[in-house]
């Protein structure tokens, strides 16, 4: 078997994106350079052959996916897996996390104006966000950030592919309320005569 066949078999069988390093672990004859060459050759072959699937770079790895123009045909079959749909509150909260990470629950709730505990739990359960650390405030609150599965779910290679903050609603691009309050508090403490 040639390296391209081995790489193709691995990518075809995987339900998640794989890096060249991960694919190279399949056989001693493979290394990252050989895998990268095989991926490039497979991508050209699929594009030139006008296949119904393509080899895409997504979430830091490579994955075989059906081309988007075939989605209407696949939607008619119950056996074709579909990504889970997210509710509007989940999408709003996820957008806050994506643009403000690491971000705590209190700041998410301040921005959305409602309790976010249930939505956060759902997003963690779906592996779209994860705990990335603890804040410095009272009780050292949990801070959240997006996961690799978030990138995969939305077809992104990295967070750099998200729209720029200038293109977003004001609430997502301005400093958070906690940051503003902290800055105001520091200014008041530094004022003369105190």
Could you please describe the fold and organization of this structure?
α1 (3-13) crosses α3. β4 and β5 form a beta hairpin. The chain has 2 domains: 3-74, Arc Repressor Mutant, subunit A (Orthogonal Bundle); 88-190, Winged helix-like DNA-binding domain superfamily/Winged helix DNA-binding domain (Arc Repressor Mutant, subunit A, Orthogonal Bundle). The chain starts with a helix and ends with a helix. It is built from 10 helices and 5 strands. The strands form 2 sheets. It has a 3-stranded antiparallel β-sheet. With 194 residues, the protein is of the alpha+beta class. 47% of the residues lie in helices and 13% in strands.
Set out the fold topology:
Layout: H1 3-13, H2 20-24, H3 32-48, E1 53-58, E2 61-66, H4 71-74, H5 88-100, E3 103-104, H6 105-112, H7 117-125, E4 129-134, E5 142-146, H8 148-153, H9 170-173, H10 177-190
Antiparallel strand pairs: 1-2, 3-5, 4-5
Helix pairs in contact: 1-3, 5-7
Mind telling me which CATH architecture of the largest domain this is? Orthogonal Bundle
> What's the domain count?
2
Helix and strand succession?
A: HHHEEHHEHHEEHHH
Order of strands, widest sheet: 3-5-4
Per CATH, the superfamily of the largest domain is: Winged helix-like DNA-binding domain superfamily/Winged helix DNA-binding domain
Number of extended strands: 5
Structural class: alpha+beta
Helix content: 40-55%
Please state the overall shape, judged from the principal axes of the Cα atoms: elongated
Helical segment count: 10
> For this structure, what is the CATH class of the largest domain?
Mainly Alpha
Query: Beta fraction of the residues?
Result: 5-15%
User: What are the low-pLDDT stretches, counting only 5+ consecutive residues below 50?
Assistant: 180-194
Oligomer: single chain
**Biggest sheet statistics:** 3 strands, antiparallel
User: What is the mean pLDDT?
Assistant: 83
Specify Rg, calculated over alpha carbons.
Answer: 22 Å
Distance from N terminus to C terminus (CA atoms, Å) equals 78 Å
Fill in the CATH topology of the largest domain. Arc Repressor Mutant, subunit A
């Amino acid at each position: 078997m040639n390296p391209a066949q081995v790489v193709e078999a691995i990518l075809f069988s995987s339900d998640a994106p794989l890096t060249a390093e991960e694919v190279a672990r399949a056989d001693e004859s493979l290394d990252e350079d050989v895998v990268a060459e095989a991926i490039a050759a497979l991508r050209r072959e699929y594009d030139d052959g006008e296949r119904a699937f393509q080899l895409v770079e997504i979430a830091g790895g490579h994955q075989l996916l059906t081309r988007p123009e075939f989605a209407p045909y696949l939607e008619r079959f119950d056996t074709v897996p579909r990504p889970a749909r997210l509710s509007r509150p989940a999408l709003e909260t996820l957008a806050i996390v994506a643009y403000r990470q690491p971000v705590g629950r209190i700041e998410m709730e301040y921005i959305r104006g409602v309790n976010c505990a249930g939505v956060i739990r759902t997003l963690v359960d779906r592996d779209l966000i994860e705990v990335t650390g603890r804040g410095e405030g009272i009780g050292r609150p949990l801070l959240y950030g997006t996961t690799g599965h978030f990138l995969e779910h939305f077809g992104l290679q990295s967070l750099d592919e998200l729209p720029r903050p200038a293109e977003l609603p004001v609430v997502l691009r301005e400093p958070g309320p906690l940051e503003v309050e902290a800055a105001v508090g520091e200014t008041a403490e530094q004022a003369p005569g105190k």
